[in-house]
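Key idea: predict the complex, not the pieces.
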Amino acid sequence: MSKKRWVQGLIVIALVALGGYAYQTRQVSHAGESITAVGSTALQPLVEAAGEQYTGEHLGTFVNVQGGGTGTGLSQIQEGAVQIGNSDLFAGEQKGIKANQLVDHRVAVVGITPIVNKKVGVTNLSTAQLVKVFTGEVNNWREVGGANLPIVLINRAQGSGTRATFEQFGLQGRRSKTAQEQDSSGMVRSIVATTPGAISYVAFSYVDKTVQDLALDQVEPTEENVTTNAWKIWSYEHLYTKGQPRGLTAKFIDYVQSAAVQRTLVRQLGYLSPDQMTVDRDVHGQVTKIGGE
Amino acid sequence: MKSTQQLERQLKRHSKAARLESWGRFISFSALLLIVAVVVGIIGFVASKGIATFATNHVSLWDFLTEKTWNPNIKDAHGNPEVGALPMIVGSFLITILSAIVATPFAIGTAVFMNEISPNRGAKILQPVTELLVGIPSVVYGFIGLSVVVPVTRAVFGGSGFGILSGTCVLFVMILPTVTSMSTDALKAVPRYYREASLALGATQWQTIYKVVLRAATPGLMTAVVFGMARAFGEALAVQMVIGNAALMPSSLVAPASTLTSVLTTGIGNTVMGSLQNNALWSLALVLLLMSLVFNLIIRLIGRKGRMQA
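Result:
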């Protein structure tokens, strides 16, 4: 009997202690503001890192970052369920989105390159050849100057921002033929690395020694070539807000766009900063030189 | 006078036990109510979203079930969106049936060994092993499939290695423990005197197993297989990692294909709520839900039939 009492007392003490601890910590995490950013997985690492830095410097704030994909980000921001929608695409390019309600904040530029398995033996393709490879007109690497291997196409999922950008600027608006689809860039890279004859496309930051990136029309996929639009397959990374941002949302977006973050975090994580670009591209793909260049 | 009134009140008052009982009944009933509400809610939600493809976006149900091009972003020559779900439906069924066909002999063999041939060793070794298999998360199966099964398939059968064959290999291991443990239960349920009578008539052990035990346990074994199929049909992650996710009619077992679940998991994050692309995915989810309902019905039917025979 007394033992039971003892246990009960212990439980009560533990509960009180936990409650007290929760009460104490509540001050830190809830007293300030918190915002939520949802969407593109390609942009997620940057927003996460920037969010961590920002909350480290501004105690009492919290930036909650979630993935889910570009479509999720845009639909959540359109519904007003979150404060920021991360997107690889212009809102106008995504079906079912009323772009005029949303305000675009460009925070980074991502270059995308075709990658092939190392056994393919090709390091350069002309744009016409690339289109033929992805539309299925060519089925063997021999036909474009490579080894005698069947071509294995690997696409990103339909509606992925990377795929949309690649088809628009890499395949000149043509659509890839139906083939394997994977839902993440990391998965694409590991499959290309291990499958003979495989070709796909990823952001520059995903290219490593296990795969071969391709030059197109002798233009190398480098950051410099992206800044001048010599390498055409790139896209802006957008933070969308519903209407003009206010409060913490505005401060956070300013922070991400600030020179400090653009010079350090954005480049460390393998993105380009929009400040580096010597050209500007609008939602219809029209490229204009930025004045003063 | 007063004492009789008091006695009456005492007798008519609810006792503590009676109050406890009604309270317990209330709690368990509300738990049931909550579960029913959740199930009805899920079915209602998926159905309302899934039907929107046909009601709001005016896709014909027949086209959805029989067309072979899955391209919700694109409209065909007649202005109808290309949402033909046949490749996924065929892929799902093919992979389910194949993995059940491969898994069944192994599962029943294991169950027979555990129950009839060597109950002692079976219980000591095989039982924990099959239970361990159940506990392995599906992403681990998928990862092993991606790094072992796919390269082996590619080396042996050619192609890219991604396809229904790899999916079958992975799924077969995944549903094996389910089918095995349910088969074991089915064999255990066969009364001991069946075996005794058979042996007494001079039948060998094998004759007893084949002609008596397995026959008597047939409804239970079928339930086990259908249960395994239901699990295979709904499995998403592991299959998605090895099947290749190409919304094409499967032309061979080593060509990339797709299942309802794999298209759902890769696609849902890239679509906008309320758009046709999103609704089409919900329609796939509705097909999945209806199919698992069908599997449940089959299990029920088998169970009822089995009981009548016994």
